[in-house]
Amino acid sequence: MVIKYKSTRGNEEIKSSAEAILKGIAKDKGLFVPIAFPTIDKKLNDLTQMDYKEVAFYVLEKFLRDFSEADLRDAIENAYDEKFEAKEIAPIVKTKDAYFLELYHGKTLAFKDMALSILPHLLTKAAKKLGEDKKIVILAATSGDTGKAALEGFSDVDQTEIIVFYPDHGVSEVQKRQMITQEGKNTHVVAIKGNFDDAQSGVKKIFNDDDFNEQMNEKGYVFSSANSINIGRLVPQVVYYVYTYIELLKRGEITSGEKINFVVPTGNFGNILAGYYAKKMGLPIGKLICASNKNNVLYDFLNTGVYNINREFFMTNSPSMDILISSNLERLLYELSDQDENLVKNMMNQLEGESKQYTITPKMKERLKGFYGGFTTEEETIETIKKVYTESEYVLDTHTAVAYKVYEEYKKETKDETKTVIVSTASPYKFTKSVIKGIKESIEEKNEFKLIEMLSENTGIIIPEPIKDLDQKPVLHDMKCEKDRMKDIVKGILDI
Ligand SMILES: *Cc1c(COP(=O)(O)O)cnc(C)c1O
Questions:
Q1: 399 CA distance to ligand 1 centroid (A)?
Q2: Residue ranges making up the domain that contains 379
Q3: Does any domain span residue 105?
Q4: Is residue 159 part of a domain?
Q5: Which atom of ligand 1 is nearest to the CA of 228?
């Protein structure tokens, strides 16, 4: 079966996976979704010989069948190589009461590397296959981690130009330094005076600006996306859910068919949606536990069926989750409504319109039962880092701590003893300033890079290669703009 893709909002022709990846977003503003889901067609026990790359091939080949086997294998080989500091790619660590799936051993120290180390390969191969000879301009909005991972992935890739927009005051010091020191002739980094939602809305607006797109085409450019609105980001994320299951099976931690839960620290709903897609493929997943920070719009949604962005936006110590408009929820609504495009379109219009909210149907609400929502305050996040470090000598970053805290509450509330995997999305070194508060009683030091050394001295965890000497690197990007001037900035950069 060759899986084809269509728009969640119904007004776009059916596309091959290569076309969907190259386009990034549908022209009716919807997101590309698979028309049907492939299934895991082998016994799980028969998969336990596979390493990460083999699982990646097994999963990608099902979703991206219009790519040749050679292209997929080549993309996988080039993505999951020594760029990752852990040879397993995604190590799983067992503590007293949970498993931690560490997705942060790539070059930028966050889980975005899992998909963004392969996306540039998929995208350039798609362009070649489809005979696209224009220059591909990747526009990305970032809450801190996508930006760097996309820059790293696309840096000096032929036939591409990449422009990243980040909220000026909404990212950690390390995240910011990582981006503004990025090398590569085709990389551009812009701070916007606004938050992540502003950046993401601005980027979507550019994608949906027909006149501008036409003008771009005439000048020899096409836009594409590196955000998780691109289906080419989501499919590689399905891989680690399947990999985790068979790895736990291989280690004898679970038996074949036994259900496991995943707790996912969530922002744009991309990571957890990939878990849902894995479940749709037949992977035995019990609950998908959605963990939010103080921006708890998803928690409210999962509990009430109402998605309402009329609320205050908070900047927290887990900045990569400081998001109110979770784009990928649209893809979940599409599945919950039995692929009812009109319904999805309506709800999205309401969200984008004056009311800034929508309510799902009772039937859709009933189907949300596979999810559980929780959220954590900033103080609880730090307390959790402290607690886990004291009990297990295991160091969590702030996002992973949000997930772990929600897991504790979930267990208390439901008494569910199902084995559970905490999806660990960032290295503690990426958010040192907050993490160290949970590790050390009092700290006077303010310099983030001194704190990194301090964290290493205290915990004995080696400082990851990519952030060593980050403070010594020259700043190469200093552009800044108002949130409603993003289009002008793009024009300026491309000289049109
Ligand atoms: C992006 C990110 C998240 C949120 O992931 P989504 O796919 O947007 O839900 C969580 N933690 C970290 C560290 C991230 O970078």
A1: 8
A2: 92-109+232-461
A3: yes
A4: no
A5: 7
Q: Give the span between the Cα atoms of 354 and 350, in whole angstroms.
A: 7
Query: How many domains is the chain partitioned into structurally?
Result: 1
Q: According to the model, what pLDDT value does residue 249 have?
A: 98
| Ligand 1 atom showing the smallest separation from residue 400 Cα | 11
List strands edge to edge, sheet with 479-482: 221-225, 135-141, 160-167, 187-193, 479-482
d(CA 78, CA 477): 27
Kindly give the distance from the C-alpha atom of residue 1 to the centroid of ligand 1, in angstroms, as a whole number: 31
How many Cβ atoms sit within 10 Å of the Cβ of residue 96? 8
**Owner of token pair 């749709």:** 280
CB burial class (10 A; 0-12, 13-18, 19+) of residue 379?
Answer: exposed
| Whole-structure pTM value | 0.96
Domain assignment present for residue 123? The answer is no
For range 87-101, the mean pLDDT = 96
Whether the CB of 271 sits within 6 Å of ligand 1: yes
Interval 458-479: pLDDT, tens: 999 999 999 988 999 999 999 9
Task: Dump pLDDT digits (tens) for 194-223.
Answer: 999 999 999 999 999 999 999 999 999 999
Q: Residue 332 sits in a domain of what CATH number? A: 3.40.50.1100
Note whether residue 327 is domain-resident. yes
Task: Name the β-bridge partners of 34.
Answer: 5
Mean pLDDT for the chain? 96
Mean pLDDT value across residues 38-51 = 96
CB distance 275 to ligand 1 below 6 Å: no
